[in-house]
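To fix ideas, we now present one chain and its tokenised fold:
***
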Amino acid sequence: MSLAVVQSRAKLGIEAPKISVEVHLSNGLPAFNIVGLPETSVKESKDRVRSAIINSYFEFPARRITVNLAPADIPKEGSRFDLAIAIGILAASKQIPMDHLDDFEFISELALSGGMRSIEGLLPSAQGCGANDKQLVIALGNANEAALVESLTVLPAKHLLEVSAHLHQRAFIQPWVKSAPDLHQEHEQLRDVIGQMHAKRAMEVAAAGGHHLLFCGPPGTGKTMLASRLGGILPPLSNPEAMQVASIHSVAGKGLRKDLGSRPFRAPHHSA
């Protein structure tokens, strides 16, 4: 049967809905169509996937290729589906086995050489994959970020050939062992502020009771200086809170947070 189904995940805010990449090869004039509400960057994956397959010494099937990203009502964006589409084409054309494809989810951009590149906003996808009890195949550059999900087996690879060898059970990709992250980074301390006794007392009350706090005053009176020290008197983030903050950080394209346990502080300019 020239039909293969590969699992991947979309990026929808800080959510990562599961996407089934359905690849069908049929007779007719050679063509390559992607359906399922793809944006331009997803449609452009046709050229990346074709070159990656050929440069990895596989045969690109000269048949009518239809790729459906289901469910079709979820917008698909980015290059994260490249690897899943390539694996689907190779499985549908019988160049790799499809016996164990359901055990994995594939998320990575492909270079024209077949190399695998990291993507932005991977952490929500890793959380969804771990909750679904699947193994995640990604680029090596995303390994530390995905490994934050303790229940997830992360299989990082550098090239499409490594993924093929793993699926053929010839050379297995070793699960990534995460390095111990810095869970807490020292904040600026409130004790370093001289004076401002009323403001410091208000901060302590707000931190203890979980209240909102608004500083008002002319420029230069120390509002930002005090606010930057609020994190130092707040308790560290719990694990669910740290993962939620890290997910927002990841989706914003800022990669992996270095101080996972610390509460984030932002100081936008007044003109923002």
